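User: My instructor asked us to take a sequence, write out its structure as tokens, and then describe one feature of it. I'm not sure where to start. Here is the sequence I was given:
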Amino acid sequence: MSELFRNPQRDEEDARQMAAIQRENRLNLKALLLTLAIVIAPFLALLISLELALFVLVAGLLFSTVLTWSVAGKMGAGTRSRLRTTAALNFVVFLMAAAILVMRLVAA
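Assistant: Let's start with the prediction itself. The structure tokens for your sequence are:
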């Protein structure tokens, strides 16, 4: 009886929408984890060591830069330029944090 009410086109559309929702959820989870890494870094510095905190900060900045740049290509023109600017600024902060980490490791 349920086969009478099935619509293959609607099923395909539902599958596409579910796939889009799942992609968005994965992207949101990645962004949350990267933000969490950047926020946790200062507490690691206080509790364990500054080098570990810098490493976590550098990793979070690098991954968030890559993620922001890759998402920017899928957005409209206005949003794309803002996201790429954000990714570029994020990359500058990444370079500064990486330089500080390298200087501390070389000096130790």
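For the description part of your assignment, you could build on this observation: The longest helix spans residues 8-47. Try explaining in your own words what that tells you about the chain.
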